[in-house]
Structure formats: C-alpha cells, structure tokens
Amino acid sequence: MNIRAVRVEDLAGMQACNLHNLPENYTMKYYLYHALSWPSLSYVAEDHNGRIIGYILAKMEEVEEQDGQPVADHVPHGHVTSISVMRSYRRLGLAKKLMLQSQEAMSSIYRAAFVSLHVRKSNRAALGLYRDTLGFTVKNIEEKYYADGEDAYAMQLTFQQ
C-alpha cells in the first residue's frame, strides 16, 4: 500500500470511497476545490493495483473577516473535512498515516497552529484514533451537527512549533 498526495484524477476514487463508507457525501466540485486550493494537504492510500482504498480531504481555514476586513488575530489552522478507509483495509494504520501526513503539511507549509475536525459522537473507532492515538482534545459538542441530527465532537490538536 502506498500513501501519496492527491491528484485530480484521484477525485472520483476518493468520492467512491466516501460514498461507500460515510453518510456525509460531497460533490465533485467540493473535492476539486480542496485539491486545487490546498494540493499539499489531501492524500490518498492506494492498494498494489493503484485503487484508492482511503483518503484524507483537508484544508486551511479561511481568514476570518469582520465588516469586510480580516480579523487581526486570526490564527492559521487546518481542518480535516473528511477521512475514510475502505472497511477491508481498516486497522492497518492507514488512517493514522493519512492524518500524520496531512498534519505535517499543515504545520510545515502553512505554519498552522492547530488542526480541527468534527466526529460523530457514536464513532468510537475514530474517537480512539483522534483522542488516544493522535492526541486530539474535545473542544465542544456541536448539537445536531450532522444531517441525521447526530451531535458531533469538535476536536482540536495543537501543533508543536
């Protein structure tokens, strides 16, 4: 298995992986927006045949504005929009590797101070990865965050600068 930066031709495979594994789905335009805007933050895992078996879709958060002006104390930070690994390839450390690759790029290329993400409260496997393995902390609970009404943990990991 190989992990590498996303290319435009990978987007259909990423979308297929997403549709197969997750209830939150995105348009092709959204994948393209991420890939073209932050090409060094999204990665794919592929099997020995080059088939996409996992991905991370990530971005830098936009500069906050107030009254049309950038907020002076905006802290650059990344956000994991989506991460998924095909079921038959889980528990091999691919999600951890995808996360670390993206986090390293956020920190080194964009000088991000931290990375954020949302995760379903019921997703114990993901919570274990984020909290126990990668060191994320829960910042708050966003009620009814998901379309089906489930709450999300808003999580964050501060980078060592």
Task: Write a concise keyword list for the protein shown above.
161 residues, alpha+beta, 7-stranded mixed beta sheet, 4 helices, 31% strand
Summarize this entry quickly:
With 161 residues, the chain is an alpha+beta fold. Helix content is 30%, strand content 31%.
Task: Explain what this protein looks like in three dimensions.
The chain has 161 residues and is α+β, with helices and mostly antiparallel strands. It is built from four helices and nine strands; from the N terminus they run βααβββββαβαββ. The mean pLDDT is 87. The protein is globular. The strands form two sheets. The protein has a seven-stranded mixed beta sheet with strand order 1-2-3-6-7-9-8, sandwiched between helices. Strands 4-5 form a two-stranded antiparallel sheet. A hairpin with a 5-residue loop joins β2 and β3. α1 packs across α2. The relative contact order is 0.15.
Topology:
Layout: E1 2-5, H1 11-21, H2 28-37, E2 43-46, E3 52-60, E4 65-66, E5 69-70, E6 77-85, H3 94-110, E7 114-120, H4 124-133, E8 137-142, E9 152-158
Parallel strand pairs: 6-7
Antiparallel strand pairs: 1-2, 2-3, 3-6, 4-5, 7-9, 8-9
Main β-sheet: number of strands, strand sense, barrel status?
A: 7 strands, mixed
In spatial order, strands of the major sheet run: 1-2-3-6-7-9-8
Structural class, by secondary structure, is alpha+beta
- Average pLDDT for all residues: 87
Helix content, binned percent: 25-40%
Bulk shape: globular
The SSE order reads: EHHEEEEEHEHEE
Beta-strand content bin: 25-35%
What is the distance, rounded to the nearest whole angstrom, between the alpha carbons of the first and last residues?
31 Å
Number of alpha- plus pi-helical segments: 4
The radius of gyration computed from the alpha-carbon positions, rounded to a whole number of angstroms, is 16 Å
Low-confidence stretches: none
Q: What is the strand tally?
A: 9
